[in-house]
Structures are given as C-alpha cells and as structure tokens.
C-alpha cells in the first residue's frame, strides 16, 4: 500500500453521490439537455442545503436531481469519481477512503449496474494513482429495492480484486420496521459473511435502537452507519457494545438529518461512545449536502462538539482497525502512517 507523506486522513463513511460538485452536476445537466427547475447555479446549490427543522427525509430530498443527472452517463460517472478523489486529497487530506454508492440507482438504457461499477472504479483508480489516495468502494443496497441484494453481493465478490471491499444497506429508515429485513436481504448478508464479504449497515439514524440490533445480530454488520439511537435502549446498547461493532459517526449530517437535535451538540452521542470505549470513527457522510469535507468536519467536532484532540486521534486509530482491509501488513502500515502525523 503506497501512502503519501503529505496525507494522513482516513474516512470510512462517505457517499459518492453525496460528495459530488454541484458545478459538475450543473454542467452535466446542460450537456445532457436535462432541464433543471433552477434559474442559476447559485439557486441550484441552495437546493442541497437542508433547513431547520431537520429530518432525514428532507436531507435526502437534496439528492432529487443527482440521480437523474448522472444516471446512465459513463463519462459523467468517471468524471465525478475522479473529482471525488481529488477533493478527498485537497479538501479532506485523506490517504485512505472507503466510498460507497448504490449502482442500481445510476443505471440507464445502455448501462446496467455492472457497467456503472466499472465506470466508477475506472474513475476512482485513475485519480487515486494521480493523487496518491488509497480508494476503496462499498456497494449499497437501497431499502426500497431489496430485490437487488443478491446481484449487489455477486458484483461485490466479482470486483473485490478491483477495490470493492463490502456491501451496505442505505436509504430512508424513518418508517423502519422489522419486516424491512426481507428473507432475501437476510440470505444475502448471511452469504456475505460466509463468503468473507465485509458488511456495514445504515441503522439507528432515523430508525429505532431495534434497527441497530437487527443490523448487528441478523445482518452480521461489522460496522453500523450512524447508530445514534441505539442509546435509547440500554439493553440493546449493552448487547451491541459487547460485540465490538464499530460506529461510523457523521456529526454534521447527524444534525442536518434530525438524528441529533441541533441545540444539543455538546451532548452528541459520540461523547457517550467515547466515554464507554465504543469503537467509532468520524466521517462526513455527504459533503455536497453538509458543506463540509473531513478537514472541516474535524474542526467542527473540536469547536462545536467539544471533542479533544485525543478523541479525534482515537477515532483515527479506530477507523484503521475497522477499515475493510484484509491484509494485516497493510493495516499495520496504514495505522503507523495515520498516527505518525500530528
């Protein structure tokens, strides 16, 4: 694993389609003659900024024009992937990043999910070489499209040699129920465990603590995206703690999705995770929406959440330990590199 001496950041939870450049989306829309209901680029950019009172549904509504603009356009997918890596280097200072996206959302008349993955990996790999950022990809299954689960798993296995490191479940969990875990999803994640495909699951952001329990114990999640509401059920929290599962904490988005009340930042769930010795890391989730890449996110954590430099350093150590890396040598190299920087 080649790592740049100039970079030391690590991020485990960032959505590719939530880390695009609004300018690029605007350009691609014009090139493809897609009519956007905005009179200017500035007005278009404001579409991505959620307003209080916050909710996950309102947060996700900012993506309403991302998918239509990019879907089925190979050149746009390659371009956006390359720009993502460039921003990871210069705006986040990352030496290692695990990005994620749902390939089935970006298909078109001449592009199936596999072609979408190929184009995205092409862009990521080309830019990763240029900018010296180790980039990996996680494939998401959308909650409202469980029928894609098996194909996502098979594609993750097929493209593992090319940088795909795991699978995820994403999407609006505001109305979560146990029935959301269809037999197909359960089978997919059971097989993923058998095959050695890494697993992370969005849970406990807008959904209840029970969603975290199901993610860990029925979907065999090694990491949980967000997971804040697990604290609402002490019994489940204790059970989950004992597994050593890792929580991918995204502070800014947790406020903007309404997962955490905006006037209680000093009591953010991350403080409880820290005091209880729970494994957690810090990520941006969707810089396009929050307006913060990782450098700014960490500054926000210090100034607004009151996290100490020790806590932030611990989050980096945790991130390396929880990263979907199978080589012990690579993990040790990354750990020494990340913690060697002040």
From TrEMBL:
It is found in: Cell membrane. Pfam families: A_deaminase. Keywords: Hydrolase, Metal-binding, Zinc. One of its GO terms (molecular function) is adenosine deaminase activity. GO terms for cellular component: cytosol; external side of plasma membrane. It is a peripheral membrane protein. Its EC number is 3.5.4.4. Transmembrane segments: none annotated. This is Adenosine deaminase. It comes from Paragonimus skrjabini miyazakii.
